[in-house]
Amino acid sequence: MFTNSSAAILGRLLEPDSGGLSSDAARSILGLRFPRTDHERMTELSAKASAGTLTTTEGAELDEYLRVADLLALMQSKARKSLN
Question: Could you list the residue range(s) of the whole structural domain that residue 65 is in?
């Protein structure tokens, strides 16, 4: 895996164990959710991937959604750590 992708670099910046976010910032981050239309699109792309019918373009789109989801998970982990 390419360790200096934008998601990897941001992930290192958002290392969950470091805490350090204000309470307001942490609560704001914990409230972030994908909009319904994006969630539906991710579900559709995941189903196509499972069925083996995902196109190359759709695969790239799904990869982007997964990168953002991973980044959001890191941000929310850091936010929870900051509130403890």
Answer: 6-15+35-83
